[in-house]
């Protein structure tokens, strides 16, 4: 049975990777995973936004990719050691910080793909996501963090589990089993989508057998991060169900054409 996350939405999917930074937004200093980047993705017509979450020193689950502030502002402190108020002040001139709860409230029709970046975020996400499981997909490179988050959501009282994408171990198992034409049935249990790079460290992850194996189980295949039109068209022609991209505007124009 198809999860509501995928129902009544365009296919192939376009997932705005950490929102959308337009030329104007970039010139004005908008950052990824900010309210302004999400607003730009929404304005461009993106139904799905891919984002990442971590906990601050105050225990708030905020939308932030990196483990530290180093890449954005040259500050080596881990996000978990920074107070939410300080992080919000840092984001103030760059599009605005969002917690997961704020993003769900501010963009009530958007479907979110939330990458859980740290084990400590799994438990507090439960009550935050409880009422939004029809439009949330939980993923993580860690299958254990992904499962812990889903378990927390269900403990909070959600009647429906969020959609979910397999972590690194799940992807490796499906890639290996599909290569030798063995059904990856158990590996794909309770999995709605495989979100993968086309290649990883020189190894081709996306293959025709993997796509076929996933589709036989009713599992979608999304590829990240794809930013040129020719690659988008090629992947869709190969049977990919979704494109995760920094250029949601380009992807929507290319795929919907």
Automatic annotation (TrEMBL):
Molecular function, one GO term: glycerophosphodiester phosphodiesterase activity
Keywords for the protein's UniProt record, in alphabetical order: Hydrolase
Any Pfam family the entry gives: GDPD
Keyword Hydrolase annotated: yes
Cleaved signal peptide residues: none
Keyword DNA damage belongs to the record: no
EC number: 3.1.4.46
Domain spans labelled GP-PDE: 12-255
Enzyme class: hydrolase
InterPro entries attached to this UniProt entry: GP_PDE_dom, PLC-like_Pdiesterase_TIM-brl
Highest rank taxon of the organism: Bacteria
PROSITE patterns: GP_PDE, PIPLC_X_DOMAIN
Protein name: Glycerophosphoryl diester phosphodiesterase
Organism, scientific name: Microbacterium foliorum
Lineage: Bacteria, Bacillati, Actinomycetota, Actinomycetes, Micrococcales
């Amino acid at each position: 049975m198809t999860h509501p996350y995928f129902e009544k939405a365009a296919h192939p999917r376009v997932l705005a990777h950490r929102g959308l930074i337009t030329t104007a937004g970039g010139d004005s200093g908008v950052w990824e995973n900010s309210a302004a980047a999400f607003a730009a993705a929404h304005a461009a017509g993106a139904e799905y936004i891919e984002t990442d979450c971590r906990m601050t020193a105050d225990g708030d689950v905020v939308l932030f990719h990196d483990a530290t502030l180093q890449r954005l502002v040259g500050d080596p402190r881990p996000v978990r050691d920074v107070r939410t108020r300080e992080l919000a002040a840092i984001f103030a001139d760059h599009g605005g910080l969002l917690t997961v709860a704020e993003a769900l409230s501010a963009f009530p029709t958007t479907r979110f793909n939330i990458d859980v970046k740290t084990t400590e975020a799994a438990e507090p996400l439960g009550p935050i996501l409880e009422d939004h499981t029809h439009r949330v997909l939980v993923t993580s490179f860690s299958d254990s963090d992904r499962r812990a988050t889903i378990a927390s959501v269900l403990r909070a009282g959600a009647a429906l589990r969020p959609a979910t994408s397999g972590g690194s171990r799940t992807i490796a198992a499906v890639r290996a089993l599909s290569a030798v034409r063995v059904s990856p049935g158990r590996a794909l249990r309770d999995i709605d989508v495989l979100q993968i790079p086309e290649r990883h460290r020189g190894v081709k992850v996306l293959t025709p057998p993997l796509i076929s194996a996933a589709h036989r189980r009713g599992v979608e295949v999304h590829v990240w991060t794809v930013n040129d039109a020719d690659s988008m068209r090629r992947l869709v022609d190969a049977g990919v169900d979704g494109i995760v991209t920094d250029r949601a505007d380009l992807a929507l124009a290319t795929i919907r054409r």
